[in-house]
Amino acid sequence: KNILPNSMVELKGEIDAVTFENYRAHVLEEFAKNLEVPGFRKGHLPVAMVSQHVSERAILEEMAEHALADAYPKIIDDEKIDVIGRPNIAITKLAGGNPLGFTITTAILPTITLPDYKKIAKEENTKLEAPNVEEKEIDDAITELRRMRIKQNETTQKDSASETTEELPPIDEAFLASLGNFKDETELRAKIKENLLSEKTHRAKEKIRIATLERLVNETPVELPQLLIDGETENLIARIKSDITRMGLTFEGYLDHLKKTEEDFRKDLMPDAKKRAAIELITAEIAKKESLSPEEKEIEHETAHLLEHEPSADPIRARMYITHVLTNEKVWALLESFK
Q1: What secondary structure letter does DSSP report for 8?
Q2: How does strand 83-93 pair with strand 8-15?
Q3: CA-to-CA distance for 272 and 22, rounded, in angstroms?
Q4: Is 124 helix (H, G, I), strand (E, B) or coil?
Q5: Are 147 and 168 in contact, with CB atoms under 8 Å apart?
Q6: Under a CB-based contact definition with an 8 Å cutoff, are residues 314 and 306 in contact?
Q7: Who's near 56: CB < 8 A, 6+ residues apart?
Q8: Which positions ≥6 away from 156 have C-beta within 8 Å?
Q9: Which residues pair with 78 in a beta bridge?
Q10: Comparing C-alpha atoms, which of 108, 111, 93 is closest to residue 10?
Q11: Are 244 and 250 in contact (CB under 8 A)?
Q12: Sign of the alpha-carbon torsion through 285, 208, 298, 292
């Protein structure tokens, strides 16, 4: 095993000749089933005739693919490494009756030395300010609701020369009923205050989360595999493309507007992609260290809910996504509990 830069590892080894040759019979049977040879129906070519239509090199390469596919999980288990992504496998020795030589290069999860995340979280949590709602904010919200009602009820024709204006509707029973059957203005104001308070509380918590993440990323030395950075870049690109499509635009048109190539655009996303990759590793490490994981029934419930709204989604990927989200929620519940 040879540890390479950027959280890569190189594994060199051999599969003994006897084990390697044991794959020949299975490979010949596969070729016999799939070869189309004049005079034989597909799938009915005698195994003994395969070597007349397939080169020894092709047979050995197929044997090597099967042998390494079976050996790879055991290799990484024996070496006790946490791999990510697909490995790059190179055959270094390939000959009948001989050991199969190989070199595997793969990305691995980097070793993370977490900072004192409890202390960091506690220090940032103390900065959480209790939100306050002023009466003027409630007045402004009600005024905006009244203006929206004018737009909804407006039937007056407008032309380029003049524009008809209307008085704001009164806060009467009809107005209150249209907003949710409030019995009076006092009840409406109380509900608006509650909503504004909830929104401000959410924003305040989000501000603390961002500050906590910034410190965790800055105080956690980690060598990020390029594979993770590339993956986060693709996630960002996919999200941006989705947003652009919803606006009725094209990604190509968006790039033209920015006067950038897609390659330039990807480079611009690199800092964010690196930060997101680091955050994913850090939160996963905290979850591992604190033994945080969602309950099975919670995963099943949320996965079923997701698939109900996204029936075309792959169930396995959906479950992985839900598990990831629920685990992160537990990490944040923990971090926000430190006072």
Answers
A1: E
A2: unpaired
A3: 49
A4: helix
A5: yes
A6: no
A7: 96
A8: 164, 166
A9: none
A10: 108
A11: yes
A12: positive
Tokens of 101: 């030589």
Residues contacting 338, CB < 8 A, separation 6+: 118, 121, 122, 125
**What is the spatial distance between Cα 285 and Cα 292, in angstroms, rounded to a whole number?**
10
Nearest to 309 by CA among 322, 293, 295, 328: 322
116, 124 Cβ separation under 8 angstroms: no
- The DSSP secondary structure of 210-247, one letter per residue, reads HHHHHHHHHT------HHHHHHHHHHHHHHHHHHHHHT
Strand-pair partners of 15 = 100
CA distances 115 to 1, 88, 156, 216, 282, Å, are 29, 33, 64, 7, 10
Contact 318, 301 (CB under 8 A): no
The DSSP element (H or E) to which 91 belongs, if any, is strand 83-93
**Contacts of residue 64, Cβ cutoff 8 Å, sequence gap at least 6:** 20, 91, 94, 100, 102
Q: Counting every residue, how long is the chain?
A: 339
The residue written with tokens 């704001």 in the block is 168
Q: Which sign, positive or negative, has the C-alpha torsion 212, 214, 217, 220?
A: negative
Alpha helices (runs of H) in the chain, residue ranges in sequence order: 17-21, 24-34, 50-53, 56-79, 117-125, 135-153, 173-178, 185-218, 226-246, 251-258, 262-289, 296-309, 315-335
Edge-to-edge strand ranges of the sheet holding 83-93: 2-4, 8-15, 100-108, 83-93
**Could you give the count of Cα atoms lying within 13 Å of 320 in the half-sphere of its Cβ?**
5
Q: Tokens for 302, please give them.
A: 């949320």
pLDDT by residue for the chain (339 residues), tens only, comes to: 888 887 889 999 999 999 999 999 999 999 998 888 888 888 788 888 988 999 999 999 999 999 999 999 899 889 888 887 778 899 999 999 999 999 999 888 888 899 999 999 999 999 999 999 999 999 999 999 998 888 776 654 444 444 445 688 899 888 898 888 888 999 999 999 999 999 999 999 999 999 999 999 999 998 888 888 888 999 999 999 999 999 999 999 999 999 999 999 999 999 999 999 999 999 999 999 999 999 999 999 999 999 999 988 888 888 988 999 999 999 999 999 999
Task: Confirm if 302 and 322 have CB atoms less than 8 A apart.
Answer: yes
- Distance (Å) of CA 301 to CA 23, 169, 326: 43, 46, 12
